[in-house]
């Protein structure tokens, strides 16, 4: 993949606000090579460490902050949201969301099919970045992140929430066991699953495909519905990580191609000086 400049995708809902800078970054504009080309921000990937550090430095520079002030949590598919006020190099919280009210602190999360959600209360000047994988979304990472914002002084009616790049319903094939995780929470969640209509894939590395029923899972709609339940303003950006190989990394696509690993794109937000 040819090297290009950083190409973060802006959300209209957040772009209209003053004092907030944000971006759903693509895989373009970094220094990584091969399957990681080029802006791989995933510290947990098998990419060259120096390349990942340089990629993250470039993202920090885009926000006009030092590299040490671009913070991402140690993601673990949990429902834990951590409030951060200072850069703590090497001490990333084990969580799936960061929340802050500190200017000049860029907070972000990395994804490769899971939902990337950025939130802001422009009036209270409180922001959040949320990694909403299916486990976290199902178990409450979104309301917990909003609750953390409220603790800092945000008001739900002023919160703007944007659901960014994620795997689309068209490309998210799941099995019955997966579906049952949702139905065990709420039988009404059956509406997020429809019979799979396409060529069946191996659902995960090392798993053989069978004739068992599989489904389309609408993770994007699930995320947006959970946000709306919190009475915040929601914008959904129809960006499919699986389908758009030129711009996004995808765990599922890499698995289907038999690749050994995959990169991660970063989505981040930062409070700036007003004006």
Number of H- or I-type helical stretches: 7
Residues in β-strands, percent: 15-25%
Structural class: alpha+beta
Biggest β-sheet: count, sense, barrel? 6 strands, mixed
Number of DSSP E strands: 13
The residue ranges in which pLDDT falls below 50 over 5 or more consecutive positions are: none
Radius of gyration: 18 Å
Query: What is the terminal-to-terminal distance?
Result: 37 Å
Following the backbone from N to C, one meets helices and strands in this order, namely HEHEEEEEEHHEEHEEHEHE
CATH class designation: Alpha Beta
Q: Estimate the mean pLDDT confidence.
A: 94
The outline comes out as globular
In CATH, the topology is named CNF1/YfiH-like putative cysteine hydrolases
Structurally, how many domains make up the residues?
1
CATH superfamily: CNF1/YfiH-like putative cysteine hydrolases
What does this protein structure show overall?
This protein is of the alpha+beta class and 275 residues long. The protein has helices spanning 12-15, 49-62, 134-139, 141-151, 176-185, 219-228, 251-256, and strands spanning 20-24, 70-71, 81-83, 97-100, 106-111, 115-121, 126-132, 160-163, 173-175, 193-195, 214-217, 233-236, 265-271. The protein has a 6-stranded mixed sheet. Strands 1-13-5-2 form a 4-stranded mixed sheet. A hairpin with a 4-residue loop joins strand 6 and strand 7. The radius of gyration is 18 Å and the shape is globular.
């Amino acid at each position: 993949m040819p090297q290009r400049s950083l190409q973060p995708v802006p959300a209209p809902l957040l772009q209209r606000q003053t004092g907030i800078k944000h971006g759903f970054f693509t895989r373009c504009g970094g220094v990584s090579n091969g399957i990681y080309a080029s802006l791989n921000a995933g510290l947990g990937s098998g990419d060259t460490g120096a390349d990942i550090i340089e990629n993250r430095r470039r993202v920090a520079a885009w926000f006009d902050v030092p590299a040490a002030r671009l913070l991402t949590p140690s993601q673990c598919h949990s429902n834990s949201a951590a409030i951060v006020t200072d850069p703590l190099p090497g001490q990333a919280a084990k969580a799936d969301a960061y929340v802050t009210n500190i200017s000049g602190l860029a907070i972000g999360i990395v994804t490769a099919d899971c939902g990337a959600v950025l939130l802001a209360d422009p009036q209270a000047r409180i922001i959040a970045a949320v990694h909403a994988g299916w486990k976290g979304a199902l178990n409450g990472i979104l309301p917990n992140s909003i609750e953390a914002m409220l603790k800092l002084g945000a008001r739900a009616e002023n919160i703007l929430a944007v659901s960014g790049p994620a795997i689309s319903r068209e490309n998210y094939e799941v099995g019955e066991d997966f579906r049952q995780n949702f139905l065990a929470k709420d039988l009404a969640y059956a509406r997020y699953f429809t019979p799979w209509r396409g060529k069946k894939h191996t659902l995960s590395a090392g798993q053989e495909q069978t004739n068992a029923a599989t489904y389309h899972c609408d993770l994007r709609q699930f995320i947006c519905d959970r946000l709306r339940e919190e009475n915040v303003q929601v914008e959904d950006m129809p960006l499919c990580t699986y389908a758009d190989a030129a711009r996004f990394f995808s765990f599922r696509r890499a698995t289907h191609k038999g690749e050994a690993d995959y990169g991660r794109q970063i989505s981040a937000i930062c409070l700036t000086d007003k004006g």
